[in-house]
Amino acid sequence: MRLTTYTDYALRTLMYLAANRDRLVTIQDIADLHGIAKNHLTKVVHQLGLLGVVETVRGRNGGLRLGKEPAQINIGQVVRSTEPDFFMAECFDRDRNECVLSSACVLKGVLGTATAAYLAVLDDVTLENLIKKGSDRPSGSVAVKSIRVHSRPRSQKE
Fold it and tell me: CA 107, CA 120: separation in Å to the nearest integer?
């Protein structure tokens, strides 16, 4: 299972907002931290706003903040809302399935069970859980470092 970049950015945004609850954060702040495109991140933030998990404050000193308490933001719900589908194989998409083995294939059931288990784990996690696991620091401050979830292997010179 691999999350889309869109979902990756959504989760990074939520974690950063949760770690910086004492101030308004700009899209540019998050884009600069992770080295991602501001235009793409704007679309992600817009959807998070429609979900009610991010609130935008307009104006000269505006920015973003969480729209709910971190304990109320379920990671499974966020992932379901930002991923286009959970088609683990061609046979999961009824409209495009051309696999000749589909009628007798057991693999689809196995992959379906695995996907359900994956989502069940995410359903048991809140944004608060993610932030608490990442912070053992006094005064509630959380150091957020840029991570690369989908890094490509570097070519090795021979």
Answer: 20
